[in-house]
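Protocol step 6 of 9: fold each sequence in the batch and record its structure tokens directly after the sequence line. For illustration, a two-sequence batch is reproduced in full.

Sequence one:
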Amino acid sequence: MARDSAMQINPAGRLSVTAENFRTIWLKQDDPTVVQIIDQRLLPHEYAVRDLRTWQDADTAIADMYVRGAPLIGATAAWGLYLAALEDPTPAGVRAAAGTLAQSRPTAVNLRWAVERIMQLVDTSGDNLVARIRNDAQAICDEDVEISRGIGNHGVALLEDIARRKPGETVNVLTHCNAGSLATINYGTATAPIYFAAERGIDVHVWVDETRPRNQGSQLTAWELSASGVPHTLVVDNAGGHLMQHGMVDIVITGTDRTTRCGDVANKIGTYLKALAARDNGIPFYVALPSTTIDWHSRDGIAEIPIEERDPEEVSHVYGVCDGRPARVRTTAQDTPISNFAFDVTPARLVSGLITERGLCDASEEGLLQLFPEMRHP
């Protein structure tokens, strides 16, 4: 996987993750055989772009978290199948890559959805398979931008309502992990309402959970909020309950990697605890999600959603900068036993509502079906 270390700004030509033409994945200019991504492992200390030249590069980017966030993971898998078609432009060749890509991250349902969408196209007769996959991979990205925009347009009403109830005061949002532009193609899910609120002149402030062990909050969410000029404060993961007890949080908005048809949500580990604290303090807890993240074949999140367990070194080591140089430091004793569950499930009963591209709804089967009636019998 090649690295373009010279590129320090995004394709929009400026450091703004809410620029209209900002993208987290794109075809390299003047070379359509190369897909480019932002290497999110290096943020916020370095902005670097990686070249994906093979479907194996795409698989590595997903599994090793060069890219993160359910929508971006799905889009990367789609582009990975395009790269596979470039290498072997036959259905059998693409199918071989699809089997591996579909297993690279088990929890995010967008991955399976994107692979299945491309494979439906592969299994349909037609000329120029490479071009058809390329067009559909691009369509997945373009559609995701519109989905995030829809989430923002519907979700901003929640923040506008809070602003009306406390005129002249700041609207304080707490979020967990990264459900921003970096997790999608642009705008994000949980952050989309926040960005739209800021654009409309609402005085909004975000409490950013650090989100151990991969620190998506401190390294990604805080970085992109800063790049977009949104006021924010980084807090340790366990501070959320304290902030809520002292009236410092008006609403909690998180993203999700998989949502059952009954409204249970799987998200980064620690989300469940935020939902419990919000319920105890009477604070609304909303989940922003694209419809591509809904698992219509699953009803019981705790029993049916596979929870990814990752490398213990993500817990035992931290990445940062020391004396101006990137550094990876062990924080535990060498022989400390470590468990590293990457996600947890928040039951629908703790979710105040879901924010989708089609509107807001209750976290329930009937609530989702009112917005997506075509999925009553998937």
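Sequence two, same batch, same settings:
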Amino acid sequence: MSQTSIERLREYLAQLPPQAQALLMREFERALERGQDTAVATLVLEQLRKIVRKTESDETPPPRTDDLSRLLFQALEPFLVEAGAPIRVGQIRRSSLPPIWQWLGRDGAPDKLNEFEAALARMPADSTGQVEALAQKLQAVAADAIFTLTGPGGGDKSRALARVGPPNVIEDLYSVGAVLAVREAIATLNEKLPRFLRSFGDPQIASVTTALNIPVLQTPQMLPFALSIVVQRMTAPWQIIRLAIKIAASDDEIRVAATPYGVAVTIALHDLSSVAAILRMDIKRGNFDTVADNLKALHDGARGLRTELDLRNDSAWGKQLTSIRADISNALQSEIDSVPGRVRRILRQRAEKDIPPGARIDSTEVEETAALIDFVATCRNYASELAINEVTLRTYSDLQQYVERSTEQLVQALRSADHKVRTYRQQQVQAAIRFCQVLFGDDYASLMSRAAENAATGERKSSRAS
């Protein structure tokens, strides 16, 4: 999802009452547990948690004893993803934190955790500085405990690792320990980076490169996390590849991949795939509010990767980009193909004898179909890059011709409509005018609306005269 769409979502969620925010969080957490709508739930939960954390930091005292785990893991927040969402380098599953916390309290550092818990309970409510100092000590102890378990030496540790959790938790354990060990460097990077990177040209690339020049963040394990922080500041996240191209001094994918910063391309491709998953889910749910922003993000990302990076069709990166484009194309084409049929079902001029008494047109279906027509119109702007050029242009042209012709025919039919079916005919005309508004604009829709009013008025005058 683009930065603009995320900001709009965050503004909307921030306006909700705290009770509504809590209810939404519970519902989306349950959806994730059931494996439903993972892409949407992950995005909304992430924004809700940011809002709740900011509200709590602004309005409430620091976390107390029951939030000791939050003090420990607060340094990981920029890298956490929700359950069910695909994970990439530079990310940690939020679901891995509870078992890691339990292991620390049971095997990793139980005495220290008890000591910190008692110290936190004794602190006065306004001791923000002391709580922060305690959090840093807690994070250092946790990092040491994790390194003791995961580091070299000590013989076979498979049984001890198995006590932490399943393989995905163990995988995250290494990342958690690495991030906690360099938490101060990450804080420094956060301070050095611009708050927003709206454009990522040479001056911004130079500034970010300087900010990233922290030795402990340049390791193969930590660089993806550092780059993840940069990506979160970017209006167009795909542009992170420019950093890799600059470091490699070449757009050739082999030379880019040979540098440590080649991981930036992997991040860009994964995030582009995630946007595609959100788009598919939105289309499936009939939610077209953010489709335009997501289409633009996918179009710009796919075009940027193809034009700024010399990708080979048979390389891993080339195949992944081709797969993403094909996936998007298939999802869009399937939905685009369905639109003319929905329009015809509403506007088809049936014989009066075939219209049952009391027949009505569902206004919700009309608005859903209007949204789909607008969706087809939006797709035209990005059709060539997303490999849907032919189907989009053909469908849009067919819709224009059919709606224009049907609207005129329905207006004429309204003049002579029997009173038994007049209401249904009027609803058909109103639906046609709504579609005209999307396809041809307000002026044409107003013109057809006046024609419909004149037809209905003429029909009534004719009835009175007879």
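Proceed to step 7 once all outputs are recorded. Observation for sequence two: Residues 312 and 318 are 5 Å apart (CA to CA).
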